[in-house]
Amino acid sequence: MKNPTMVERKSERELVVTRTFNCPARIVFEAWTKPELFKRWWVPKSCGLNLVSCEMDVRVGGGYRLVFQIDASNSMPVFGKYIEVTPYSRLAWTNEEGGEGGAITTVTFEEREGKTLMVMSDLHPSKEALDAAGTGSADATVETFEQLDELLVTLGASA
Amino acid sequence: MVQHWSDRLDASFAALSDATRRGVLDQLGRADASISDLAEKFHMTLTGMKKHVGVLEQAGLVTTEKVGRVRTCRLGPRRLEEETAWIERYRKLWASRFDELDNVLEELTRKERVDGRKNGK
Q1: A1 reaches B (C-beta below 8 A)
Q2: Residues B42 and B70 in one domain
Q3: Is A66 exposed, middle or buried (0-12, 13-18, 19+ CB in 10 A)?
Q4: I want to staple A101 with a disulfide (CB 3.0 to 4.6 A). Which of A20, A29, A125, B56 is the partner?
Q5: What angle do CA B44, B48, B53 make, to 5 degrees?
Q6: Three-point CA angle A104, A20, B16, nearest 5°
Q7: From the candidates A2, A6, A27, which should be mutated to test the interface with B, based on the most B CB atoms within 10 A?
Q8: Within this chain, do residues B19 and B59 fall inside the same structural domain, yes or no?
Q9: Given an 8 Å threshold on Cβ–Cβ distance, is B97 in contact with A44?
Q10: Percent of chain A with pLDDT over 90
Q11: Going residue by residue through chain B (121 aa), what tens digit of pLDDT does each one get?
Q12: Where is the domain boundary, B40, B55, B75?
């Protein structure tokens, strides 16, 4: 039984995703901050994008850069800077690939009885920016939950 | 304002959680239809379809108008529908990311236990 992922538009400029993970915060934090782990889950196999490189310098002022291969001749970089890094509890970074005025992403991890509540917020500079954000990335096709379940069963069987 | 938003979204998600209702929206996306047309198309009783349309109407996804004895349904305020659809797409993207993350976390947790045993903790 997977934990539910909740998405809520908190305000005209802010979109918030929450989810619980069944392990301590330090382990979740590690999976968000070590590139070799991060790249294993950030791009679901289903969305047809290939993450060709993933560099993360996780400290305040450090940068990150992800490059997605869209097809043979097109790749798309995603990059920004870390503005807050508090081990096991808080991360925040800028999203600069869209030029000026990208969103600020803040992720907090709160451990309770061995489980971790993660809250991720994307704060956009304006309502229009958030509205537009919905149309860009949404083209990445995400399969239905049934297919995802199958995928997980396969992964579980091979684990 | 924010509360209103999330109430609206809750209603939308509830409305979209049913396959027949999603089918009705799909149908109305192609052409307006009366409740009896829809009932026939989805092999339902008129009462059953009225209930579904009522839920969609509550969520602002459909508007209905009675002309004479026929109640015609059409798609409601389009913006909300698009908004709801993109939030749901976004949610699915994150849900699939986090389901993958679960696998990574499980592995790390297992590894930690094994390492812990090795180090005699």
Answers
A1: no
A2: yes
A3: buried
A4: A125
A5: 105
A6: 85
A7: A27
A8: yes
A9: yes
A10: 53
A11: 445 556 666 777 778 888 899 889 888 888 889 999 999 999 999 999 999 999 998 888 899 999 888 999 988 765 566 667 778 888 988 999 999 999 999 999 999 888 887 776 5
A12: B75
B6 to A145: CB separation less than 8 angstroms, yes or no: no
Question: To the nearest 10°, the Cα dihedral for B106, B107, B111, B112?
Answer: -40
Residue tagged 């959680």 (tokens) = B17
Tell me the pLDDT tens digit for each residue of A113-157.
999 999 999 999 987 788 777 543 333 323 333 344 444 455 555
Query: Which of B2, B91, B102 comes nearest A21 by C-beta?
Result: B102
What's the pTM? 0.63
Q: Which residue of A has its CA nearest to B100?
A: A41
Domain co-membership, B88 together with B62:
no
From the CA of B96, how many Å to the nearest CA of chain A?
A: 6
Residues in chain B: 121
